[in-house]
Amino acid sequence: MGGFFCASICIFNAQNKKMKKQFLLLLMSFLVLHQLKAQSSIDSVKNAVNNLFIAMKTTDQALLTSCFADSAVLQTITKNREGQIIVVNQKVADFAASISRFAKGDLDEQISFDVVKVDGDLAIAWTPYKFYLKTVFSHCGVNSFQLIRQKNGWKIQYLIDTRRKTNCE
What we know:
Number of strands: 7
Radius of gyration: 26 Å
CATH architecture: Roll
Helix content: 40-55%
Strand content: 35-45%
Number of helices: 3
CATH topology: Nuclear Transport Factor 2, Chain: A
Largest sheet: 7 strands, mixed
Shape: elongated
CATH class: Alpha Beta
Structural class: alpha+beta
């Protein structure tokens, strides 16, 4: 009887260890998949933002327009001639038309991603930048993006930026 009891406990422990390993493997898989899903959402947002700057650099009006939601808002914070801070609105179509007047490679906005956050179908991206016109430094600032996830991917719903010529480092 003692041998049977010991054998039963050994089999139980072996099965228990196997179940523990399977559980840990399942748990690790879940955590990795969760991380990959979160990472892929962030990467998708970054790709949507990067497409805007690819469109600018290649003067691709169609690509630029496709980066935005239909009801997108574009704004720039700047100063008027009197030095007062103002917000200037621009339509996506006007922005797209303005880039088409340049040669490929003339517009080079170099960004970095300081913050990207995703919650369901809403995302934000905060991207400091330096802008070069025909390889000559023009200005710097920060872009603040609000993006929404649509059937065909992430689209820019709201973009506001700052522009300055100093304190760019």
